[in-house]
Amino acid sequence: MGADFATLIGATGLLASADPLSLSFNLDDLNQHNFPTEHDVSISRPDAYFGDATAFNASVWNDYISFFSGKMSTDLDTTAIARFSRFENSKRYNPELVFGLKEEILSLAENSLLLQTMGGAGSDKADLRFVRTFIQEQKLPFELGWRPSKAPITLLTLGAMSVEILKKSPDTGNELGTVTKDSYKDILILGAGGLEILGNLTQGISETLGL
């Protein structure tokens, strides 16, 4: 992980900490719906409306990963379709769905991070055996041959891939209408206490969109 991304994760976690002055946080601190990073439309967890949004849900995950049936590795096109289908399912069945700009960003980043963690920085090609082991067994698939990315995964690489996924989504037109340099920057800086380092993610997004 790049220093900028690691810093962002740490700062975001401290926002939820019961004792931020301790400069530490735990998973219980992060178990807050819609704050700071928990959100509806997860690819492997149910929406909070349906129960424990922190526990792996095989049904949710199987619906998502089924779009990759017959493939050996992930790709942006299938990822975009699978993510959008997950959103459509929540929109249809969750009467309390919360999915605004912040949640859109988190959803895109979640998908981008999964691909790059399992496939390498900037790469959308991840061995599906790695992906399944990581999500279903919640462990790093070293025994299958996975190794950490040699290049750092940064806010810039995540931002660029997030927009590529968004551009390939079935409802690209409506979604892209809300994606601007200022809106991303405002939401992200608000969410992480004004960290200047978030400019890197904004840069990745704005460069890809040509803003």
Key words describing this protein structure:
211 residues; mainly alpha; Chloroperoxidase; 10 helices; globular; metal ion binding; Heme haloperoxidase family profile domain-containing protein
Task: Describe what you observe in this structure.
With 211 residues, this protein is an all-alpha fold. It has a single domain, classed as Chloroperoxidase, CATH 1.10.489. Helices cover 53% and strands 0% of the residues. It is built from ten helices and no strands. The protein has helices at 3-16, 27-30, 58-65, 76-93, 101-119, 128-136, 155-167, 172-176, 181-191, 199-209. Helix 3 (58-65) crosses helix 4, helix 5 packs across helix 7 (155-167) and helix 9 (181-191) packs antiparallel against helix 10. The longest helix has 19 residues, at 101-119. The chain is globular and about 45 Å long. It starts with a helix and ends with a helix.
CATH topology name:
Chloroperoxidase
- The stretches of 5 or more residues where confidence is low (pLDDT under 50) are 179-186, 189-202
DSSP strand (E) fraction?
under 5%
Q: For this structure, what is the CATH homologous superfamily?
A: Chloroperoxidase-like
For this structure, what is the CATH class? Mainly Alpha
Oligomer: single chain
Overall strand count? 0
Arithmetic mean pLDDT: 77
Query: Treating each run of at least 4 consecutive H or I residues as one helix, how many helices?
Result: 10
> How many domain modules?
1
The shape, in one word, is globular
Between the first and last Cα atoms, what is the distance in angstroms? 26 Å
Fraction of helical residues: 40-55%
- Radius of gyration based on Cα positions: 16 Å
**Order of helices and strands, N to C?**
HHHHHHHHHH
Secondary structural class: mainly alpha
Query: Tell me about the biggest sheet?
Result: none
Please give the CATH architecture.
Orthogonal Bundle
